[in-house]
């Protein structure tokens, strides 16, 4: 019974774990382009869109399937 409870708890936390992993990757990708967003640089329209798409990536991800099927934006 205790093992079943552990497995259920692990399965119940799958979405949270996947979202955390997705956010970590997204944050690394944003960090890779942060230097372009400094005040002495002007971001291209494509780069602005890319960075916004990265920030919006987690919106609406409320199931494991949605997280597993995320389409990552392409860096310009």
Question: Globular, elongated, flat, extended or rod-shaped: what is the shape?
Answer: elongated
How much of the residues is beta strand, in percent? under 5%
Radius of gyration computed on alpha carbons: 17 Å
Q: Mind summarizing the main beta sheet?
A: none
Mean pLDDT equals 89
Number of helices: 4
Binned, the helix content reads: 55-70%
Element order: H for helix, E for strand: HHHH
Q: Given the helix and strand composition, which structural class is it?
A: mainly alpha
Count the beta strands. 0
- Which regions have little confidence, pLDDT < 50, spanning 5+ residues? none
C-alpha termini separation: 52 Å
Explain the overall architecture.
The protein has 76 residues and is mainly alpha-helical. Helix content is 63%, strand content 0%. The protein has 4 helices and no strands. It has helices at 2-12, 14-33, 45-56, 64-68. The radius of gyration is 17 Å and the shape is elongated. The N and C termini lie far apart (52 Å). The model has no long low-confidence stretch (mean pLDDT 89).
Task: Offer a quick outline of the entry.
The protein has 76 residues and is mainly alpha-helical. It contains four helices and no strands.
Give short descriptive properties of this protein.
76 residues; 63% helix; single chain; mainly alpha
């Amino acid at each position: 019974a205790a093992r079943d409870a552990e497995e259920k708890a692990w399965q119940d936390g799958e979405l949270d774990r996947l979202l955390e992993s997705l956010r970590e990757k997204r944050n690394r990708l944003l960090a890779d382009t942060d230097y372009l967003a400094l005040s002495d640089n002007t971001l291209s329209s494509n780069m602005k869109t890319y960075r916004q798409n990265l920030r919006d990536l987690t919106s609406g991800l409320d199931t494991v399937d949605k997280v597993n099927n995320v389409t990552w934006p392409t860096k310009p």
